[in-house]
Write a structure and sequence with these properties.
4 copies of one chain form a homotetramer. Chain A is built from 10 helices and no strands. Chain A binds a DNA duplex through helix 1 and helix 3.
Chain lengths: ~210, ~210, ~210, ~210
DNA sequence: GATGAATGAGTATTCATTCAT
DNA sequence: CATGAATGAATACTCATTCAT
C-alpha cells in the first residue's frame, strides 16, 4: 500500500523536528518567546512557515516540546535513579556536571530562566505541579522533582559532612549558602557575554568546590 | 486659569504619571513587557488608553522611563558620592541596604532582571543609556556604572580585609564568591513566592554577613 | 471624568453595530458564512477590519449576534405571548404575517436556512436546545420554541376547523399538508431570483389561504 | 505488465474514484463544501492527500464531478426520453419515484440543496454547465432542464385532470400547490433527523398522492 | 500508482497608536 | 486634560496544491 520507502523517512522527520527545535530555542533564548516570530524560525531553518505546523501544533506547543526535550535530557545526565548518596568525590563530580550541563545546553537554560521569571509561566510550570503522577509529557513536575531531588541529596551530603568535622558548622546554613552561590554562578554565567566577561567561570567552580567540598 | 491651579495641575499630572508607571511596572513584571497590553495598563489605572499617550510617547518610552525612575532612586540610596571606602560596619550596612532595596522595589527588580535576560533588550535598553535626554544627572550607562562602582568598593574592602587577616585568603576569590552569593540570593528572593518559599531570607542575609564580613 | 460628550455616542455605536451586522448578513447570505472574509465586510461597511473586532469578538460571534437580533425581532412580530388561539381571520393574518416577515427579512432567512442545512449547525442550534431556560442570549431554544409554538397554535386551529366541518378531514393530515406547503413556499420564495421567477408569490399565498382557511 | 492487468487496473481506478467521491459527498453534505478539508476526505478514504489529486484536478473539480455523477443518474431514473404524458398511475409512480430517489441519494440531495442556496455557487456550478467537457451526453444546464421538464409534464397532467373534473379547479393553481408541497416535503425530509423526527414521511407521501392524484 | 513532506498564498485576529470630540 | 472609536501593520495559523521518492 504505502511506498514509504523505508524508516529512513522517520529519521529524516526526527532530524527536521530537532532542526526546528534547535533554531527555535536559540531565537527564543535570544529575543524572548513572544518577540520571536514563526516565520523568523522558518527562515532560520530554511523551511516554510507551514512546515513548522506539520511538526508542532502551535508556537506554544513548540516551546513546550523544547522544554520537554531538554529536561528529559537533563534527567538522564543526573541519573536520577541512583542511590542518592554523595561521597566527597561525587560531590565534586556533581558540581562539575552541573556546570557542564549549563555549558552544553547554555541556550536552553537561558530560555528556561527567562521563562521562570514570568509569574504566569512559573505558576503554569512549577506551582501547578500537582498534576497526575502518571503524566507522560513530563513537564510540570519534572522541575519540581529535579529541584527536590537535588536539595535532598545535597542536604544529606552537608549533614554528613558537618557531623564529621569539628568546626561546628550548621548543615542547613552550609546547604543554603552553597545553593545560593551555585544559583548566583549559574545566572552570572548564563547571562554574561562570554567574550567580555571579567569572570573566569572554570576558576569560580574550582573555588566553590574548594570552599564547600 | 488662575496661577494657583497651574501649580496644582503640575502636581496632578505628576501623580498621574506615577500612577501609570506604577501599574505598568507591576504588569510588566508579572506578565512580561511584550505580553502586557496598553489597554490593560489603562484599565488598571482607571484611565483611557489615549491618556497614557499624553504622558508617554510610546510603550517603549514608558518602559524606559520606569527603568530610569527606579535606577535614579537606587543611585540616591547608595549615596554614590561618598568616599568609597567601607568599614566592616559599613559593609554590613551595605548588604542590608541591598536587601532593603530589593524588598522595597521588588517588582521593579523582577522586571529589571527579566529585561537583562533578553539579549536584544540588554543591548537596546541597558547598554545604550537609559536616561532621558533632558535629564541633568547625566549618567550615560547607569547599570554599568552601578556595577563597576559596587565592584570597586567591594574589591577594596576585601583587599583590606584579607591583608589584616592571617588566613591567607585570596581577596579576589573572596570578592567573587561573595558577589555570586549575593546574586544568587537576589534571584532566589525576587522570584520566589514569598508565601510558600522555604527560605527565610532575613536569616540568609545574616548568614552571608557572618560569613563575609 | 469622562467627556463622552453625550449618550449620542451610544447611539452612534449602536448604529455602527447594526451597519456591520447588516452588511455581514447580506454577504453571509450571498456567499456563505465561510466564504465571506472579514475584510470584505469591512470594505462594504467602509470601516477597517480592526473596528469590527471592537464590536464583535470574532467572526462566529458576529454570526451569532446576527441570528440573535433577527430571531428576537421575529418573536416580537409574532407576539408570542398572546392567547394562542386563532380565529379564521387570525389564521389568514398569521399566514400573511409569515410571508411579510420572509419578505422584510429575506436576507436573514436565506442565511438562516443555509445554516440549518449543515449538520453541525443544526445540532448546535436545534438539537442542543436543551440549554438552561434562563438563557439570555436567546438563540438555541428560540428556534425550537418558535416552531413548537407555531405547530401548537396551528394544530389547535385545524382541530377546531375540522370539528366544525362535515367533510371528515383528518386534522393532523391537514396540518401536515399545510405546514409542508408553507415550507415549500418559503424555500421557493427565498431562493428564487425575484426578477426571473415564474412564480407570483402573492398569488400563491392567496391560494394557500383559500385552500386551508 | 500483462494486458489483463491493465483492464483490471481500470476497474480498480474506477472503484477508487467512486470511493473518494462517496466519502467526499458525505463530508461535503455534513459539514459544507468549504469547511471540508482535503485531508479529511483522504483520511476517511484511507488514502493519501496526494492520491486525490491523481483522480481530480482540484477540490472544486471533485465537487463538480460528484454533482455530475449524481445528476446523470437522476436523469436515467426519470427516463427523460419517454413520451411526457402521465396517467394517474404514472403520476403516483412519479411521486413515489421522487421520494425513492431522495431516500437513496439522500446525502447527495442534502449537498445539492445546500449548494443551491448560495448565490455564487448557484451561478458558478448550476447555471454554467455541470458536465465535464469530454462527456457526450452534453446537457448544458442540467438542473434547469430537469426542472423545466418536470414542470412541463406535471403542467400537462394537471390540465388534463382539471378538464375532466367538474370542480372548477384552476390547473395552474393545482400545479403550484402541488409543486410547493413536494418541495416542502423534500426539504423537511432531507434535513430532519430521521431518528427523532415527528413526521412519518411515507404517510405524508400517501397524503399528497391522495390529495393531488 | 501512492505517499506525505513541503510550500505559500490566504485569513482571522491582535494591539500599539492616532485623533476628532 | 481626557476619551475611546478608529486604524492598519503585524502575525499566528490554515489548507489546497505540488512533487520527489
Amino acid at each position: 500500500m504505502s511506498p514509504k520507502s523505508s524508516k529512513q523517512l522517520e529519521e529524516i522527520k526526527e532530524k527536521k523536528r530537532n532542526l526546528i527545535m534547535d533554531h527555535a530555542l536559540r531565537l527564543f533564548a535570544e529575543n524572548g518567546f513572544q518577540a520571536t516570530r514563526i516565520d523568523q524560525i522558518a527562515k532560520h531553518c530554511g523551511v516554510s512557515k507551514g512546515l513548522i505546523y506539520n511538526y508542532f501544533a502551535s508556537k506554544e506547543e513548540l516551546l513546550k516540546e523544547i522544554i520537554n526535550r531538554s529536561l528529559t535530557e537533563v534527567y538522564q545526565y543526573f541519573d536520577i535513579n541512583r542511590d542518592g548518596y554523595l561521597t566527597e568525590d561525587e560531590f565534586e563530580y556533581f558540581i562539575r556536571q552541573v556546570f557542564r550541563i549549563l555549558k552544553e545546553k547554555r541556550t536552553f537554560w537561558q530560555l528556561f530562566f527567562q521563562l521562570l521569571m514570568q509569574k504566569e509561566v512559573r505558576e503554569e510550570f512549577i506551582n501547578h505541579s500537582v498534576t497526575p503522577p502518571d503524566i507522560n509529557s513530563g513537564e510540570p513536575d519534572v522541575i519540581q522533582n529535579l529541584e527536590n531531588y537535588v536539595l535532598n541529596v545535597l542536604s544529606d551530603y552537608f549533614r554528613k559532612k558537618t557531623e564529621k568535622s569539628a568546626d561546628g558548622y550548621d548543615p542547613l546554613s552550609e546547604l543554603i549558602l552553597f545553593a545560593i552561590a551555585l544559583k548566583g554562578l549559574t545566572i552570572t554565567y548564563l547571562f554574561s557575554d562570554e567574550k567580555t566577561s571579567i569572570f573566569d567561570f572554570e576558576k569560580i567552580v574550582d573555588l566553590i568546590i574548594e570552599k564547600y567540598k
